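User: Here's a chain of 194 residues. Predict its fold as tokens.
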Amino acid sequence: MTTTHLLYLHGFRSSPQSAKARQMAAYVAQHHPGVTFWCPQLPPSPRAAMDLVAQGIAQWPGAGMGVVGSSLGGFYASWVAQHKGCRSVLLNPAVHPARDLERYIGEQTAWHDPAERFYFKPEYIGELRALDITGQAPAAPELAIIAKGDEVLDWREMVARYPHAQQVVQEGGEHALANFGDYLPRVAAFFALA
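Assistant: Prediction complete.
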């Protein structure tokens, strides 16, 4: 089944301006111009973020769509893939965001525009717990790209969380996955982009 619609979900404090989001968008535009590509700016509230995504992809064909998610976006991508029955690519995905983001409650700055501020509320932790599908068998194939050198998340937790996924575990690297461009052909092939 070819993928005609591709969703990209950025991480915590990130945006559609992230290097990986821009690389993915440029690659799709150049090599697969017929594919519908969407990378929304996600609000800080996990529930609001998934409501926005669910509305945006409501008319998308489950079997004909794919989702790519980085970090917290990887956690969200697993939820989306489970609900739409679509393939997913997870880039250094957050495994326990309810645990890990607790220390970020309060005012935060946006990664790509430090002048932009948002408030990460205590109730968002509960919203993250409500979206956690850990332990459920994936509804469709998964590809996880994991860097052992991730300085934010533990690569061993990522490997353990996605036992059914095709896993690419790279030596070294970092959370931002600076060499993501090297993986774009593999990602495109995994989705069989139209």
